[in-house]
Design goal:
The chain is α/β, with parallel strands linked by helices. It is built from 16 helices and 17 strands. The strands form three sheets. The chain has a nine-stranded mixed beta sheet, sandwiched between helices. The site of 6-O-phosphono-beta-D-fructofuranose has 7 residues, from strand 1.
Length: 461
């Protein structure tokens, strides 16, 4: 990989967020997450910059440098935030790309705002990218940027990575602007998807709707070649492993177990509070296990962490109510004084508490109806340095392709989910070890740094 060419990352959000504490001046802090952790060292080594939205409506702050990376904030008015981000990205594309688990809405005004916002990202990138730089565009919010950018700056090498699933043609075909969208994507030189199935879906759509030709991973688009292939994302495995074995995490993990009840099995779910994650069915399956007597509420406890997300979007407010309804009903029915059946935490956790909970959990349930990859599943595995614990994993998460030693479930099949959670609770330690060792081998083979280097290596040749 050539390390000389400068790199520009373009993503909906900047890698920083504004933090203000009382009595102190607001400051920028690095945002959590694997993508930022993976790209920061690469950007530092390549005089890199990042174009993104600062996360609030209104004018953009001026360009600034954070940890050696030049950040170029994009300003979006309240109307554009609503039309581009809350509506077209998260009420049209998000449900359409996640197997239509909610009905996507199609509105011409939303599309216009999506195009307008993508144009702003492309224009800012065209302005700041050095000559012949490499540009890496991320995710479904910015699918028009590759072609818009190519028109403005044909000298750039453009890569695009989609973090969420890419739908089969039969679903994508519903989108009134499917051709424009495919043409936007095909402005890239390299398009990366999470799984081989996603890549196949994208290639089929590229041929049928985007004027591309060819059968393999390399497509011909006019005079150009566009490669469309799978680059499954991962996590910073070593940092989870290291954190999991620190005295502070071990102590926290034991304290959690003690507070939850040392003689109770701990079942854990950690998700963004999103309707694609299957939190509702998971709780329903658990309630039925309790109701049928297969699980004794005195001997088991469910911990559900729900990280607030996209709260101004209607469907997210609805799923929050639904999940909280389930938690309330289950607790009303099965909790006793001092013994709560479901602990529900609606917040994000700091890394130590997160890994301590992973370590405290006998069973981790990851049951999305559809998910691009699902990094929580990989984080749990990386944190189980003692090789115990059981992972229940939806077959509709991208992670299921490689984590074949997990107990896989169809989240639409309540009976199957009950049986699988029950089975996970009764695995022998020997079977836990066998499965967890195999899962850890898979996760360790490929971390997020390898992912970024492989993509950039293929992009820059
Ligand atoms: O993986 C999809 C994704 O939209 C990411 O792009 C983003 O980091 C995350 O989910 C959280 O979403 P949002 O930026 O809408 O809060």
């Amino acid at each position: 990989m050539s390390t000389k060419k400068s790199l520009v990352v373009v993503a909906n959000r900047l890698p920083v967020h504004r933090v203000s504490s009382r009595g102190q001046r607001a400051r920028w802090e690095t945002s959590p997450g694997g993508l930022v952790a993976a790209l920061t060292p690469i950007l530092k080594g390549r005089s890199g910059s990042w174009v993104g939205w600062a996360g609030t409506a209104g004018g953009a702050p001026r360009r600034f440098t954070h940890q050696g990376i030049a950040l170029h904030p994009i300003g979006l008015s309240r109307q554009l935030v609503e039309g581009f981000y809350e509506r077209f990205s998260n009420r049209t594309l998000w449900p359409l790309y996640h197997d239509v688990v909610r009905r996507p809405e199609f509105h011409r005004g939303w599309w216009k705002d999506y195009r307008e916002a993508n144009t702003r990202f492309a224009e800012m990138t065209a302005k700041v990218a050095p000559r012949r730089a490499t540009v890496w565009v991320h995710d479904y919010q910015l699918q028009l940027v590759p072609q818009l950018l190519r028109t403005l700056r044909p000298d750039l090498r453009i890569g695009y990575f989609l973090h969420i699933p890419f739908p089969p043609l039969e679903l994508l075909a519903q989108l009134p602007w499917r051709r424009e969208l495919m043409e936007g994507l095909l402005g890239a030189d390299l398009i990366g998807l999470q799984t081989k199935d996603d890549a196949r879906n994208m290639r089929r759509a590229a041929v049928r709707l985007g004027g591309a030709h060819g059968r393999g991973e390399d497509l011909a688009v006019g005079e150009r070649r566009v490669r469309v292939a799978a680059y499954p994302i991962s996590i910073d495995v070593a940092s989870f492993e290291t954190l999991a074995d620190t005295p502070v995490v071990l102590a926290k993990s034991f304290a959690f177990r003690r507070r939850l009840g040392l003689d109770r099995q701990v079942i854990l779910g950690i998700d963004r509070l999103d309707y694609t994650k299957g939190i509702d069915t998971r709780l329903r399956a658990y309630e039925e296990l309790l109701a049928s007597g297969r699980v004794d509420p005195a001997r088991a406890v469910f911990v559900q962490v729900a990280v607030p997300s996209r709260e101004r979007v209607e469907e997210y407010a609805e799923i929050r109510e639904e999940v909280e309804g389930w938690v309330g009903r289950i607790n009303g029915r099965f909790s006793t004084v001092g013994l709560t059946t479901v602990h529900y935490l609606r917040r994000s956790l700091n890394p130590e508490d997160l890994v301590a909970l992973y370590r405290a959990a006998d069973v981790m349930v990851v049951t999305p109806y559809r998910d691009g990859m699902n990094l929580v599943a990989k984080e749990y595995v990386a944190s189980r340095t003692d090789n115990t614990g059981a992972l229940v994993l939806s077959e509709f998460a991208g992670a299921a392709r490689s984590l074949t030693a997990a107990l896989q479930v169809n989240p639409h099949d309540i009976d199957g989910m009950e049986d699988t959670i029950h089975r996970a609770m009764h695995l022998t330690v020997e079977e836990q070890r066998q499965r967890m060792r195999s899962l850890r081998r898979v996760v360790r083979r490929h971390n997020v740094h390898d992912w970024a280097n492989r993509f950039l290596g293929d992009l820059t040749g």
